[in-house]
Specification:
- The protein is of the alpha+beta class and 449 residues long.
- It contains twelve helices and twelve strands.
- It has a five-stranded antiparallel beta sheet, sandwiched between helices.
- Bound molecules: adenosine-5'-diphosphate.
- The site of adenosine-5'-diphosphate (ADP) has 22 residues, from helix 10 and helix 12.
């Protein structure tokens, strides 16, 4: 199709031609030839003044329709005066406004998508027919489908078995689309039960599809499991000494005439069991206290002075044990809670003595490695079997229950050490060889907490 201006010019030349032809045929040819020669460019110029802005406006409107907004000002107002100038100005400001709104909408869309992609929850939006219109990175990872494949498709189109997460999501989406009500389901991978998810489908307003949010609840489930295990273990550990004490107390009550030697023996057992019970309760309280420790107690601590202080206390209780200290340099400052750190080191020293044949030989060293201060406690004791190594920092874990119980332990000492070091953003590790000895390493960051 011819552009608007060309059409107008063509019509003008045709009309001028006709006008000239009729005049020439019935009047003085020479005079009207001059009139025609003057009329043609003048009318052309007038038409140009009228049609140029109109053509420009039409061009701009067409480009708007094609979603190609011009970058610069669309209509040069200085070129045109009067009404066309005003119309051009109106178009310019309209285009500027539209451009601004489009830019804002694009920025908002980008921002919303960035926020949605950064979420730990999976988010999937579907339209009324169940076709996915948006899926964030977490959702794609959870469903193990790439975002290129998922958007624009229904979840039904993916290959899955009847209990897979994709299938459950698809069923939930269908239910929400049919009922227009919020639907919330729990899902666990049936075999290993290592992953627990909560799926919440919410209908969008105006029957505009729905949004599915997938929350990973695995750590919550784990915490609940750990809590349950802890309560079961703590109850069991507390029950045993209480049962023993009750048993002895009943014996004394039912047999008041027991020989003195027996009464003395029972008394000794009651005292020993009570002190074990007290130690256990203290350890449990210590664990709870460490969990709630305040950062205000953290201060600059010289690790070397702390090690010598521990040695002093330790040698007071175990005078015939050999404890060597080796330090790379002195002083050795870190940010820590001195009392907690002392408790961790003392626990390691006590274990080194407890699990070595008497008299134990213990070696404590302090050195720097990258951004960490390393404190190692090495003994030449019984060592730890390989299969137990991954578990020894767990609460209530003991390699040899009878031996631990005999020495008054309930498997909480190393759990306390780990909790203390984790509070310092550090790590605890162990290497051990049966019958050769063990080395426990506390790695604490040199500056940051
Ligand atoms: P417990 O109070 O029973 O000693 P811990 O939490 O301190 O509990 O230690 C857990 C288990 O780790 C112990 O039962 C023991 O078998 C093992 N263990 C800890 N330290 C050592 C060590 N230095 N040498 C050998 N075994 C150790």
């Amino acid at each position: 199709m011819l552009p608007f201006r060309r059409k107008i010019f063509l019509s003008q030349f045709l009309l001028t031609g006709l006008f000239g032809y009729f005049f020439c045929s019935c009047c003085n040819v020479k005079r009207f030839f001059w009139a025609f020669a003057l009329y043609a460019p003048m009318s052309g110029w007038i038409l140009y003044r009228i049609t140029a802005p109109l053509q420009r406006i039409i061009d701009v409107v067409i480009s708007l329709k094609e979603e190609e907004l011009p970058d610069a000002i669309a209509i040069d107002q200085s070129m045109f005066d009067g009404e066309f100038g005003k119309l051009g100005g109106f178009f310019n400001s309209l285009i500027e406004r539209i451009k601004k709104q489009i830019r804002r909408a694009q920025e908002q869309k980008k921002e919303s998508e960035e926020i949605l992609h950064s979420l730990e929850e999976g988010v999937i939006a579907v339209d009324t027919s169940g076709v996915v219109t948006f899926a964030n990175g977490t959702a794609c990872k959870m469903l193990q489908i790439s975002d290129v494949n998922i958007v624009g498709n229904s979840l039904q189109s993916f290959h899955f078995d009847h209990k897979s997460l994709t299938q459950i999501c698809h069923e939930l989406i269908q239910q929400v689309l049919q009922t227009s009500e919020v639907v919330a389901w729990n899902w666990s991978d049936s075999e290993k039960r290592t992953c627990h998810l909560r799926l919440v489908g919410t209908p969008r307003s105006c029957h505009n599809g729905m949004v599915l949010v997938i929350q990973d609840k695995t750590s919550d489930y784990k915490m609940v499991e750990i809590g349950k295990d802890f309560i079961a273990n703590a109850s069991h550990e507390l029950k045993t000494p209480i049962t023993i004490i009750c048993g002895f107390a009943e014996t004394l009550q039912e047999h008041p005439n027991l020989p003195t030697s027996m009464v003395q023996e029972i008394g000794e057992k009651v005292v020993r069991t009570s002190s074990r019970l007290e130690k256990l309760i203290k350890s449990l309280l210590t664990l709870a206290e460490i969990e709630n420790v305040s950062l205000e107690k953290f201060q600059m601590v010289d690790l070397v002075s702390l090690a010598f202080l521990c040695k002093q206390q330790f040698m007071y209780c175990h005078p015939d044990i050999s404890l060597e200290i080796e330090v790379a340099h002195s002083p050795f400052f870190i940010v820590a809670d001195p009392l907690l750190l002392e408790l961790a080191v003392m626990n390691l020293l006590e274990n080194a003595a407890k699990y070595s044949s008497h008299p134990a030989r213990i070696h404590l060293s302090i050195r720097k490695e990258n951004t960490f201060a390393l404190l190692k406690v090495r003994d030449e004791g019984i060592g730890i079997p390989n299969e137990d190594l991954p578990h020894i920092f767990e609460r209530f874990y003991t390699v040899d229950k009878a031996r631990s119980r005999k020495s008054g332990g309930a498997g909480l000492g190393l759990a306390i050490v780990r909790t203390i070091i984790e509070k310092h953003n550090g790590k605890v590790s162990v290497v051990s060889e049966l019958a050769k000895g063990s080395t426990f390493t506390l790695a604490v960051p040199l500056k940051t907490i």
